[in-house]
Recover the amino acids of this structure.
């Protein structure tokens, strides 16, 4: 792998993209601003001294995305076709989640634009709220997914699902890999267990179906998992029998949901 | 679209939530609010309480995704979803879904949609307590049918 922003002499340079093909490029980035519960309440009620915080942060994020090339030295100036920002007020975590989405048809990706939009929207949230809460923390600024271009599509979830193969002998030294399997609600009570650690080597296949078979091999009571009404989540996302899994994944089995 | 998600033990104040949903906005033309309550009769006729379990982490994520999907299908300005967990008694409010849009149809339909998807996709489970014992509530085929109405062909 090479760093495209360095030339053969290791000096910074701007990549010439004139010969690259135009494709549709999209990127989604996220970040969070953690604050006191009272600050979040003021924000939600629109009672902060500087006025409508989210509307201001949204405009700041959009403006920032358009000016990314002025901030990041080797970035190209892009004619973005879409920039949008979403704010989620999270009363459980006392934070505001910020998500930015950028799109264009062009020759370079829009990851930096999405990340800049999130960063500046977070900074604007801080600025708008700092009169009442100076201890706010901005964190978790990250790319969630990008699509288009020579390097293709990438998403954080998919990267987590299939980590790059461990390099050479480093992999051999790894400790025994296990999967954490949880059982929830009625299934937990029926099985008499809430959690099970399964050695990766025991799986007949690296997917959810393999987890079920390995569990049944350990104890026939796990045949209950074959009931087609039993649901499964891998890393908190609903997953079917054929879904691929990796060492370290968190698997949960549970009955049909009955909330609301 | 402003999305507010909360999974909490405490009760909620619908009026306060509505003020919060519309704070500082004069372009909201319609707010639709649904409140679900604990009934004293369900699978058995003498429900004295229920316990709501959920899957922390996944719950918030799935509610957020449902709100985002509603935002893709209808023109919404804001969505609030609050779901309570823990021990609740008959008469207690259990869930609040509130939608805001420029015109009423979007808010009505999106609220309906969010409840249907919440009931079939968000990882919550109810255990009912009665004088004759406790049991986990079974899923209802009617809930699945209701959610199917929104499938895009």
């Amino acid at each position: 792998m090479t760093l495209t922003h360095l030339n053969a002499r290791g000096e910074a340079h701007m990549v010439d993209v004139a010969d690259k093909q135009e494709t549709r490029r999209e990127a989604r980035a996220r970040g969070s601003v953690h604050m006191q519960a009272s600050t979040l309440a003021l924000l939600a009620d629109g009672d902060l001294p500087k006025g409508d915080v989210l509307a201001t942060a949204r405009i700041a994020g959009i403006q920032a995305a358009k000016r990314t090339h002025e901030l990041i030295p080797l970035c190209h100036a892009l004619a973005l076709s879409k920039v949008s920002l979403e704010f989620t007020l999270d009363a459980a975590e006392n934070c505001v989640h910020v998500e930015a989405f950028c799109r264009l048809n062009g020759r370079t990706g829009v990851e930096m634009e999405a990340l800049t939009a999130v960063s500046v929207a977070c900074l604007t949230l801080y600025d708008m709220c700092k009169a009442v809460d100076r201890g706010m923390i901005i964190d978790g600024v990250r790319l969630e997914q990008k699509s288009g271009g020579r390097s293709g599509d990438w998403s954080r979830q998919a990267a987590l699902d299939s980590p790059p193969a461990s390099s050479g002998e480093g992999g051999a030294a790894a400790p025994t890999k296990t999967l954490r399997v949880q059982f929830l609600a009625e299934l937990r009570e029926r099985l008499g267990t809430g959690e099970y650690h399964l050695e990766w080597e025991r799986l007949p296949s690296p997917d959810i179906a393999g987890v079920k078979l390995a569990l049944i091999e350990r104890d026939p009571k796990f045949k209950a998992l074959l009931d087609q009404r039993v649901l499964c989540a891998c890393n908190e996302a609903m997953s079917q029998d054929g879904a691929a899994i990796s060492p370290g994944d968190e698997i949960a089995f549970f009955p049909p949901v009955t909330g609301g | 679209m402003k999305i507010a998600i909360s999974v909490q033990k405490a009760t909620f104040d619908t009026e306060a939530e509505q003020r919060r949903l519309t704070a500082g906005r004069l372009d909201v033309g319609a707010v639709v609010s649904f409140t679900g309550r604990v009934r004293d009769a369900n699978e058995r006729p003498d429900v004295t309480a229920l316990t709501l379990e959920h899957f922390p982490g996944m719950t918030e994520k799935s509610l957020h995704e449902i709100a985002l999907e509603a935002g893709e299908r209808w023109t919404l300005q804001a969505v609030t979803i609050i779901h309570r967990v823990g021990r609740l008694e008959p008469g207690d409010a259990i869930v609040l879904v509130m939608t805001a849009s420029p015109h009423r149809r979007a808010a009505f339909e999106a609220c309906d949609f969010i409840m249907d998807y919440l009931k079939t996709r968000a990882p919550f489970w109810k255990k009912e307590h009665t004088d004759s014992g406790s049991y986990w509530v079974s899923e209802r085929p009617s809930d699945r049918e209701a959610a199917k109405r929104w499938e895009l062909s």
Summary: The longest strand of chain A covers residues 23-34. DSSP finds seven helices and ten strands in chain A.
